[in-house]
């Protein structure tokens, strides 16, 4: 759920769109993959939540998909690393580019904050560039 008073974010729409779409597509891929392996009782869920402070906005993209092991979590932002069986779409550079865009162009951050059966990517963006 996005906060009602979500502020505008300054930036190039194509860069920000790439970053958000990449993270959301990864979440949908994870739930789709788990659905293929699970019983009919599994309910795929992807949620997007925002938190706004005076300094920044945090956007959390969470899913209950296949998850990311602690060993893999150290690799996911490295170029050409992929967990996908077939090299698809961004061929293992999606999270690398997303991290680079957010850090270098927006002084932001992206990190993994997973707990038990939930994988959560957190994107942090400052509300001003001072």
Automatic annotation (TrEMBL):
Xref: InterPro entries: HATPase_C_sf, HATPase_dom, His_kinase_dom, Sig_transdc_His_kin-like_C
Broad EC category: transferase
Gene Ontology MF terms: ATP binding; protein histidine kinase activity
Record carries keyword Electron transport: no
Catalysed transformations (reactions): ATP + protein L-histidine = ADP + protein N-phospho-L-histidine
Any Pfam family hit: HATPase_c
Biological-process GO terms, alphabetical: phosphorelay signal transduction system
Location of the Histidine kinase domain: 1-129
UniProtKB keywords: ATP-binding, Kinase, Nucleotide-binding, Phosphoprotein, Transferase, Two-component regulatory system
Domain of life: Bacteria
EC number: 2.7.13.3
Protein name: histidine kinase
Lineage of source species: Bacteria, Bacillati, Cyanobacteriota, Cyanophyceae, Oscillatoriophycideae
């Amino acid at each position: 759920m996005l906060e009602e008073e979500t502020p505008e974010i300054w930036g190039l729409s194509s860069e920000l769109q790439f970053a958000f779409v990449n993270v959301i597509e990864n979440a949908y891929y994870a739930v789709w993959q788990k659905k293929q392996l699970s019983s009919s009782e599994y309910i795929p869920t992807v949620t997007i939540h925002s938190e706004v402070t005076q300094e920044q906005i945090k956007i959390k993209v969470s899913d209950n998909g296949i998850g990311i092991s602690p060993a893999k979590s150290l690799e996911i932002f490295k170029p050409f690393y992929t967990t996908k069986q077939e090299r698809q779409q961004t061929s293992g550079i999606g999270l690398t580019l997303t991290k680079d865009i957010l850090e270098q162009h927006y002084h932001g951050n992206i990190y993994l904050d997973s707990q038990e059966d939930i994988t959560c990517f957190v994107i942090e963006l400052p509300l001003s560039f001072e």
